[in-house]
Amino acid sequence: MIEIRNLSKSFGSNLVWEDISFKIAEGETVAIIGRSGCGKSVLVKHLNALIYPDSGEVIIDDKNIFELEYVELRKMRQRFGVLFQGSALFDSLNTAENIAFPLHYFSDLTDKEISEKVEEALEMVNLAGTGDRSPAELSGGMRRRVALARATILQPDFLIYDEPTSGLDPQTSEEINQLIIYMAENLNITSIVVTHDIHSVLKIADNVVFLENKGLCWYGTVEEMRESDNKELMDFITASEYKI
Ligand SMILES: Nc1ncnc2c1ncn2[C@@H]1O[C@H](COP(=O)(O)OP(=O)(O)OP(=O)(O)O)[C@@H](O)[C@H]1O
Fold first, then answer.
1. Which residues does the UniProt record annotate as the domain ABC transporter (predicted)?
2. In the beta sheet, which residues pair with residue 49?
């Protein structure tokens, strides 16, 4: 469980948002939506203390992560995986080496154990047999799946997805949505998804955080979002050109 309590953040005189509170239960998928520049990325960077707030707390396992000492902070950060926007694969490494990268850094596994884990991960994202291909030889959807295999290889408790379906066609987006659901259900990963893709939100999310007017404008389940008459939320969804 991650509990966000009364979080506020400014950069100089630029107030990003204030007094944000909500909870993310274990195994839940929460979507964070809102217009460009409303502070979605800044918010998720608080969840693993990459950014510190002006005030407020993020509680994980009964501890305010902003008060953790260096060693504990490192351990806490290792519980997070991140799927970066645009996949962020290393072009000089092949697919298998990309996925193996975190294991070389953060585990004591032998080379043989690492290759076995990489093969399993490739199978999980339906890319068995492509380990020796370079990222340049893969489609956008395949690169996203490799990035997902890499982000989950250390079996994180929490996975942050930064616009996982951006730039993908509807069919490939759907494959990624299905994988996000698979990861949440089968690996019991708690997922935090920053997205502009309302269709994806409806497919994958349990709960939705909508940032607007420098704060948490609306929070609820996807079912509640379908029924909501919150004007700002509806305007945002309508502008996303998706009717629900
Ligand atoms: N390191 C930083 N220093 C100063 N200002 C920052 C920093 N990071 C973000 N900001 C500011 O915080 C605000 C929110 O930015 P953020 O990137 O979180 O928005 P976003 O909702 O994720 O946008 P987008 O949907 O376009 O990715 C912006 O005004 C941005 O300029």
1. 2-238
2. none
Q: Is residue 79 part of a domain?
A: no
Whether 80 is covered by a domain: the verdict is no
Residue 78 lies in a domain: no
pTM: 0.92
14 Cβ below 6 A of ligand 1: yes
**Ligand 1 center–CA 186 separation, angstroms:** 33
The total number of structural domains that make up the chain? 1
Query: What is the residue type of 110?
Result: T
Separation of CA 167 and ligand 1 centre (Å): 20
Residue of 14, 42, 85, 198 with the most ligand 1 atoms within 8 Å of its CB, for mutation = 42
End-to-end CA separation in angstroms for the chain: 29
Give me the helix-helix angle, 95-106 and 111-124, nearest 10°: 130
> Mean pLDDT for each 10-residue chunk of the chain (244 residues)?
97 97 96 95 96 98 96 94 84 94 91 95 92 92 93 94 91 92 92 94 97 97 94 90 56
Residue 75 is assigned to a structural domain of this protein: no
The residue range of the domain holding 208 is 2-63+87-239
- Reported ipTM: the value is 0.97
33 lines ligand 1 (CB under 6 A): no
